[in-house]
Write a structure and sequence with these properties.
With about 180 residues, the chain is mostly helical. Helices cover about 55% and strands about 5% of the residues. A 3-stranded antiparallel β-sheet has the order 1-2-3. It is globular, with a radius of gyration of 19 Å.
């Protein structure tokens, strides 16, 4: 006996949406770090406002930060990309980079060191800062193609996963409206 078409369809596994923190949660983490260590504050602020991967952050050299941009050289997938810096972060970098030579690594540490710093201030996975960056920029109205370029995603579908998170938030916000 031939099986029906319906019985051959495998059920879809539920898509796991990226975990991210609210703006308020991130600001609280940053406030604590700022009181504790200028370097740690800059690390966390940079992760949140640029979407850099931890490996990209620890490989940054002074020469990679110029003209209001971070130039990621040979990021994941051996791709180069440019990440614009907003004014406050650019100014903070200016003070931190004084005294470094162009080839000097900005944070001479390992991925593990950065993970330890993050754990010192919060219980977030380092990639959560990247997810938070993506969600916050989309909520603020950033074009998804621009976000794709900043994050260094080859496929737009990878970046589009963040739209599902934003869509969920829109529904929750809409439900708060009293009619």
């Amino acid at each position: 006996m031939k099986k029906s078409y319906r019985s051959r369809i495998t059920p879809k596994t539920p898509k796991i949406l990226p975990k991210y923190s609210s703006r308020e949660e991130i600001l609280e983490i940053l406030d604590t770090a700022k009181k504790d260590s200028r370097r740690n504050y800059l690390i966390l602020l940079t992760l949140w406002r640029t979407g850099l991967r931890v490996s990209e952050l620890v490989n940054l050299r002074k020469r990679d930060i110029k003209d209001g941009n971070i130039f990621v050289i040979l990021g994941k997938g051996k791709k180069d990309r440019v990440i614009p810096l907003e004014k406050e972060l650019d100014a903070t970098w200016g003070f931190y980079l004084d005294g470094l030579k162009p080839k000097d690594r900005v944070f001479p540490m390992t991925d593990r060191n950065v993970r330890y710093i993050i754990k010192r201030y919060c219980d977030l996975h380092p990639h959560s800062f990247r997810h938070s960056f993506a969600v916050h920029t989309l909520k603020a109205g950033m074009n998804i193609r621009s976000l794709q370029k900043i994050l260094g995603h080859v496929n737009l579908e990878t970046t589009a996963e963040y739209l599902d998170v934003v869509g969920k938030d829109v529904k929750e916000d809409f439900d708060k409206v009293e009619w």
